[in-house]
Design brief:
The chain has 305 residues and is an alpha/beta fold. The protein has a domain of 131 residues: P-loop containing nucleotide triphosphate hydrolases (Rossmann fold, 3-Layer(aba) Sandwich), CATH 3.40.50.300. 40% of the residues lie in helices and 19% in strands. The protein has 12 helices and 10 strands. It has a 6-stranded mixed β-sheet with strand order 6-7-8-3-9-10, with helices on both faces. Strands 2-1-4-5 form a 4-stranded antiparallel β-sheet, with helices on one face. Helix 3 packs parallel to helix 6, helix 8 packs across helix 12 and helix 11 packs across helix 12. The chain binds adenosine-5'-triphosphate and magnesium ion.
Amino acid sequence: MLDVKGLGIRFGGNHAVQNVTASIEAGKITAIIGPNGAGKSTFFNLISGFYQPTSGSIEFLGQDITRLPTHDVVGRGIARTFQTTTIYKELSVLDNAMIGHRVRTRAGLWDALLRTGRERRDEQESRAGGMAALERVGLAAQAHLPAGALTQEGQKRVGIAMALSSDPKLLLLDEPAAGMNPEETVNLMALIRELVTGGLTVALVEHKMSLVMGLADEILVMHHGQKIAEGTPAQVSRDPAVIEAYLGSHAHGGQMGQSGNADAPEPAAVQGNRGAGADSVIVASIQDNAPDPATVPLTKDSDHA
Ligand SMILES: Nc1ncnc2c1ncn2[C@@H]1O[C@H](COP(=O)(O)OP(=O)(O)OP(=O)(O)O)[C@@H](O)[C@H]1O
Ligand SMILES: [Mg+2]
């Protein structure tokens, strides 16, 4: 569905993404993982047209989208959420979804907020698109509540609805479970599965290994801007280069991964298993942080028992 070849971007002397060749397959869930600063969000920024690559190409559904601006990329069927939640808490849930629709299609943010003439013509269409998106994320009944009145999980769903309202074929989620408790994480996993069952293709960046290992069909591992491994969760979690990347970043005072918010358990689990044998580290973090073993299928663990 999406093929990138030799993709790279430099910020000054810093190769944030370097020579990445990878594919995202239709109908699957692809996770992009890697230590903090690995280039994961930048990779999404390149795919979604927020950044222009300094090298390489991006093909989506057989067409070159390398140099397309964001709104054209959205028009082709790629939508995304951001690492930092960007919902408007004082506006209604439906208004948020509708703004998502407008910003991602014809009218700009100012048109949407100021309700210009051009924007008004899109209103009906946006309302329908917004409601359809809210139904997909299970928020139709909350459409008229202020978004800020929802739980953390509800607000994340609003963010996903904003992305879905442009009716994408490929949805990019940047750390969707950040700040969520285990129960909310399980609910989010169920939602992502449902969306994929409904025909959507999902790629997500995530540090929570319980979610990644329980959900992903394919994993792409990045480190220092480069792709260092890819494969199924079982393959990747025993890949020496992956183990080295995570252990290395840990040993140097880095974190196995979180975003500076209160998702503490993941690195703690890694720490608790130091010296337990390198290849048990990633698996240990999966087991220790599984929200609920009864509801999250951790079938991949059997490979390491
Ligand atoms: N707009 C920018 N200007 C300069 N440097 C940038 C810019 N965006 C990203 N970088 C740099 O690119 C590198 C990769 O950053 P990126 O945000 O993609 O990492 P990440 O894998 O998403 O990390 P995290 O897990 O912490 O979110 C970092 O060194 C970062 O400082
Ligand atoms: Mg990031």
